TrEMBL record, chain A:
The chain crosses the membrane at residues 36-64, 99-120, 132-153, 180-204, 225-244, 287-309. Coiled coil: none annotated. Residues 95-308 form the ABC transmembrane type-1 domain. PANTHER family: ABC TRANSPORTER PERMEASE PROTEIN, ABC TRANSPORTER PERMEASE PROTEIN YESP-RELATED. It is found in: Cell membrane. SUPFAM superfamilies: MalF N-terminal region-like (SSF160964), MetI-like (SSF161098). This is Sugar ABC transporter permease. Keywords: Cell membrane, Membrane, Transmembrane, Transmembrane helix, Transport. It is a multi-pass membrane protein. Residues 1-11 have a biased composition (Low complexity). The keyword tRNA-binding does not apply.
From TrEMBL, chain B:
Gene3D superfamilies: Periplasmic binding protein-like II. Residues 94-108 have a biased composition (Basic residues). Residues 1-27, 55-74 have a biased composition (Gly residues). Residues 1-109, 487-518 are annotated as: Disordered. Signal peptide: none annotated. This is Carbohydrate ABC transporter substrate-binding protein. Residues 76-92 have a biased composition (Low complexity).
């Protein structure tokens, strides 16, 4: 669309373009065409406006108010924000818990996804089966039921706990010990490595085999090939997965809610940011405070993503750039 | 019927199908098969419920062929049972007509129509799920929290109510307390509170002051003459009776009779003090009673539940010393020192092994099954009397479970009190205030209903019916009645309804004690944190 209206900055492109300048006259007036486009877009546009943008705007407004869902919101300025940063020790506990979780879960998950993708790459028979089998947990993982099963497995007397205590390691239920509960939630996330794995697998298949051949001619072993060929060639995919999984990890809710029994326990050891947000909003009826927390989370995740993008310049390798 | 503009024949009728805009305005009553007019419901709910969007109504054959409005799900439809469905809004109707005139405009418009039909289909289905099926009855929504036992009894009572009031249909729903609390708050905020709702002592204040509840005192349909004045007053806020207590409950030390007897420790006396209770817990732990149930392979049982996590237990301990959780004007009635002493005492008991370990206590989730006693890791527990019936099934049937009074202060001052175990209130937005009030009256004052409900919500509040019912009680209801009898006339009056912030503080209390029991904070540090949080929560 924009090409036809803009003054041709790159004449060569325009001339080669599919549409001759004269073709415009035959078409129906631009306004009508745009109208039809809007009509077809309307389900999505309406949905985005009414179900996403409007609630976001409302929550931004609410974040400056004291709102208990019963009485109309009263404007309190920045009080929610100052209270959050200066007077609420549990807020900071939720921040450190979430950061700890992201730092544990994301690298572990990506490492496992990459390892399985590498293993699957060389599998010849039943590739589709294995791929589906490893992907299945990701399909199930977001569900409440799996999280509940997870809780049962790691609970006092649960299968995992039982096996470990038979092996002489009596933890007494991971989900009941502050030092272990977070790990149980992290393991649930790690187990759902299917999505990044599939992306890794696709990325691995993009790597030209000549590179490996050349490397082996040069006498590089498997490890050397992995470090010098696979990793650099895969780095854009790795970066993509890293960003995606980091964003997701910051927003983890369902597994944390179920595994911690809905309270972020024991002793606030699984008090994730989202869980505390939920607690403030729906248990304590401080919707204003919860909205403020949501906006801080949004900005924080955006900031982390920006930092990741910045660092990516030093380690992500784009083959296309090299060609220029 | 007030303000029903939806006269049959006005709109959406096959005969004049081309003028959907004439139909009854949204929210107006619709005529139904038996000639009864359905009352309009105020606010959003009414619209969603009463008008169309129900699959099968929108594109009714009677309209189908008319271009421009035939397929619009939100236009007036003539439902199969003869009822008139009002269009969603007058504006929609007009748009429809205008569009019909502009038909020749071409493909773009047709596409627009198609898109709008799609939208209508999507939005229409959202609200219409239970729009019909009531057959012209007044539909009451009644929701409560509780366990399956309570649900079973309630369903039977509601059936009887429906039999007695053929014009009323009651739709029930229930959930666990935590879930219920959150759902109800969201519904109330959206102006969609159920017609009749069960409320906790801790919710009354918030709901009443926010205008969610109807003034029941002004309704003669709810007879409150049979209820003890002090108990009834707990459902009033600033002199207005917003809710009626449904049952009377009190706390108890629940214990496994077999295990306690086997230990050889003296059984609880009616006037035992907290110190004596603590000593008994230590002796029970020392008696090495084998743990039972799953996950208890090998170990022995502790005396009882660590009471440090329970705000209720703390309140009773405070009252035993003549103090209170809250002052009359809704401020904290205790100091950091009080709380430090309580937590330090509990901490000491736990460290000596007299009461449950942190990892046991942290599994509490409101269900009887996940208490240390329920998992047979302890000999006793502290709980409310009505839910305590759940222990019997776990511990081995009738006679396996007994109730003892809560410990008193050192000078014998009782801390526990008869609490309204729960209330019933009516939504201020209800379309059927009379029917809703009648349902509450039925639950409280009808002899048959009271018999069906038994002690499932605590002992009945109607004194006459309670006395009549008591000899007929069976099973654990009997144990509860005896427990109440043993405390009658000994307890102090209940405190006024807690301030609204208390709703959240109950959980905070448990969390802060978690920090103590897992050894992450000293009792003093945790108490200071709780006081800070409580002050923020109670800020007006």
């Amino acid at each position: 669309m924009s090409i036809t209206t803009r003054t041709p900055a790159r004449p060569a492109r325009l001339r080669d373009g599919p549409r001759a300048p004269g073709g415009r006259a035959k078409r129906r007036p631009r306004r009508e065409r745009e109208g039809a486009a809007w009509v077809f877009l309307s389900p999505w546009v309406l949905g985005a406006a009414v179900l996403t943008l409007l609630p976001m705007a409302v929550s931004l407004y609410l974040s400056f108010t004291d709102y208990d869902m019963f009485e109309p919101p009263s404007f309190v300025g920045l009080r929610n924000y100052t209270q959050m940063f200066t007077e609420d020790p549990r807020y900071w506990r939720s921040v450190t818990t979430t950061l700890l979780y992201v730092v544990i879960a994301v690298p572990l998950q990506l490492a496992l996804a990459l390892a399985v993708a590498l293993a699957l790459k060389s599998v010849r028979r039943g590739k589709g089966f294995y791929r589906s089998a490893f992907y299945a947990p990701s399909l199930l993982g977001a569900s409440m039921s799996i999280a509940l099963v997870w809780r049962a497995l790691f609970n006092d007397g649960g299968t995992v706990d039982d096996l470990l205590s038979r092996a002489g390691l009596d933890i007494g239920g991971w989900v009941n010990q502050p030092g272990w509960a977070l790990l149980a939630v992290a393991l649930l996330t790690v187990w759902q490595f299917g999505a990044p794995m599939v992306i890794f697998l696709a990325g691995l298949q993009q790597i030209p085999t000549e590179l490996y051949e050349a490397a082996s001619v040069d006498g590089a072993g498997r490890w050397r090939q992995f470090v010098s060929v696979t990793l650099p060639m895969l780095s854009p995919v790795l970066f993509f997965n890293l960003v995606l999984q980091t964003i997701q990890a910051f927003q983890v809710f369902t597994p944390a809610f179920a595994v911690s029994g809905g309270r972020g326990g024991p002793a606030d050891s699984t008090l994730f940011y989202t869980l505390y947000l939920y607690d403030r909003g729906f248990t304590a009826s401080h919707m204003g405070y919860a909205s403020a927390m949501a906006w801080v989370l949004l900005l924080a995740v955006a900031a982390v993503t920006a930092v990741l993008f910045r660092t990516s310049r030093s380690w992500v390798f784009y083959a296309a750039e090299e060609d220029r | 019927m007030p303000g029903d503009g939806g006269h049959p024949g006005d709109g959406g009728h096959p005969g004049d199908g081309g003028h959907p805009g004439d139909g009854g305005r949204a929210g107006d009553g619709g005529r139904t098969k038996d000639g009864g007019t359905r009352a309009p419901r105020s606010g959003r709910t009414g619209r969603v419920r009463d008008d169309g969007g129900h699959p099968g109504h929108g594109g009714h054959p009677g309209h189908g062929g008319h271009p421009g409005h035939g397929g619009h799900g939100f236009h007036a439809g003539h439902s199969a049972d003869g009822g008139i469905r009002a269009p969603r809004s007058g504006r929609t109707g007009r748009t429809g007509r205008a569009r019909a005139g502009a038909r020749p405009r071409g493909r773009g418009v047709r596409a627009a129509t198609a898109a709008l039909v799609l939208c209508a289909a999507v939005t229409g289905c959202g609200g219409g799920a239970n729009a019909d099926g009531s057959g012209g009855k007044a539909v009451l929504r009644f929701s409560w929290w509780g366990n399956p036992d309570r649900a079973e009894r309630t369903e039977r009572a509601v059936e009887l109510f429906e039999k007695r009031h053929p014009g009323v249909e009651v739709q029930t729903s229930f959930a666990g307390y935590e879930t219920y609390k959150q759902k109800l708050a969201t519904q109330a905020a959206g102006g969609d509170a159920p017609d009749v709702m069960q409320l906790d002592y801790r919710q009354i204040n918030q709901y009443a002051t926010a205008g969610v509840l109807l003034d029941l005192g002004a309704r003669d349909a709810v007879r409150t003459g049979g209820i003890d004045k002090g108990l009834l007053a707990t459902g009033a806020v600033d002199g207005t009776q917003y809710a009626v207590p449904l049952g009377r409950g009190t706390q108890a030390v629940v214990y496994d009779t077999g295990a306690w007897r086997a230990s050889g420790v003296e059984l609880p006396r009616a006037d035992w003090t907290w110190e004596e209770w603590g000593a008994a817990m230590a002796e029970l732990s020392a008696a090495d009673i084998p743990a039972g149930g799953e996950g208890g392979a090998g170990g022995t049982r502790v005396g009882g539940l660590d009471p440090g996590q329970s705000e209720d237990a703390f309140e009773m301990w405070l009252r035993g010393q003549g103090k209170a959780l809250y002052t009359r004007d809704g401020k904290l009635g205790f100091t950091e020192d009080d709380l430090t002493r309580w937590w330090a005492w509990c901490d000491g008991l736990r460290k000596r092994g007299a009461v449950s370990e942190a990892r046991q206590t942290t599994q509490l989730d409101g269900s009887v099954e996940n208490t240390p006693l329920g998992r047979q890791q302890a000999v006793s527990d502290i709980n409310w009397d009505a839910p305590a019936s759940g222990y019997e099934a776990i511990l081995g049937g009738p006679g396996s479970t007994a109730l003892a009074p809560m410990p008193t202060g050192e000078d014998g001052t009782p801390g526990q009190y008869f609490k309204p175990s729960m209330f019933a209130g009516v939504s201020a937005a209800t379309a059927h205030p009379e029917e809703a009030a009648a349902l509450i009256d039925f639950i409280v004052n009808d002899p048959d209903a009271v018999e069906i409900l038994g002690a499932g919500r605590g002992l009945p509040v109607n004194d006459r019916l309670r006395e009549r019912l008591e000899p007929e009680l069976t099973g654990f209801d009997r144990v509860i009645a005896a427990h109440h009898r043993s405390l009658e006339d000994r307890l102090k009056p209940p405190p006024p309804a807690p301030p609204k912030g208390d709703n959240a503080l109950q959980t905070t209390f448990q969390r802060d004690y978690d920090q103590v029991s897992f050894g992450r904070k000293t009792p003093r540090e945790a108490a200071a944190e709780f006081i800070t949080e409580a002050k923020a929560e109670l800020r007006p």
